Task: structure prediction
Amino acid sequence: MSTNNDAQHDKHRPNVGLYVKVFLALMALTVVTVVISKFHLPRGQAVALGLFVALIKASLVGALFMHLWGENKVVHKMLFITAAIAALTILPILDFVLLARRITSPADVSSQHPGEAHAGEKGGE
Amino acid sequence: MRSHNPAAFMNNPDTHSGVSNAKLGVWLFLASEIMLFATLFTSYIVLRMAASTWPWGWDVLNVPLATLNTAILISSSVTIVMAYAKAYDGDKGGFQKWMAATLLLSLGFLVIKGFEYGHEFALGIGPHTSVFYAIYFTMTGLHGLHILGGIAVNGGLLYMSTVDEHWRNPLFLGRVEGAGLYWHFVDIVWIFLFPALYLL
Result:
């Protein structure tokens, strides 16, 4: 007789086949990360692509190795609160840095004081 | 074979939330770790954006060794999850084999990191050299300490599995699961450290 307990048992049963597939995907994505860096893309694109691949890898580990996929909602809520607090404390700092960077950049100074600065003298990174 | 039924353990959480105290505790600990590394990554971003120059990781660090370390850490994530699967099935020999493999891989990671650090120190490079190296040594050093902590916990579990009293304890599987969660977290931190420091 199939009971609720059996269903729960199956839900928690480690899936070895899936672990092997995730392992292969993680290895492939590591190669992709290194190959992307070989193209020597402009820094912005390189950072965006590199972090995007890292995010996919971290999601695979979190969802399937750490069993967050199908984990109790309490754990999901706790991680959401952690991420929200981290974002609330970190984003203002990053915003401040970005603002400070923008108002001191040569391009911005030249737009505010056209007669004093030399536009395009230094083109950022 | 272990005498208890893993499903019985999994389905009898000792909190009303539906998550066992042990697992909830590990997740709370990991939440604090997320905050710790989040602040470090923020420091990295702020320092990097404020610096007038910032080197490409592949110019100043050893990318092949770091890539090898990434492969080692990913492999260790698989071996520890296999150890958990064997513990779940009550297969003591299988658990010990996979946990020993996890320990070997973790030690391999530290040895390779030691080579990297040794080479850098031999060249006179240290945290004092530049802002880049200061944040590089801080982040990889802290991550290395976490690896050491993981080795201690996993080594402890491997030892405990040799003692029948511990192996038969219904809480043993939860301990292995908690250690696995921690180890995967350490892997995730490296997944972000590797491109941030070495490739971008």
In short: The CA atoms of residues 21 and 174 of chain B lie 10 Å apart. Chain B has one domain: 18-199. The radius of gyration of chain B is 19 Å. Residues 18-199 of chain B form a domain with the Four Helix Bundle (Hemerythrin (Met), subunit A) fold (CATH 1.20.120.80).
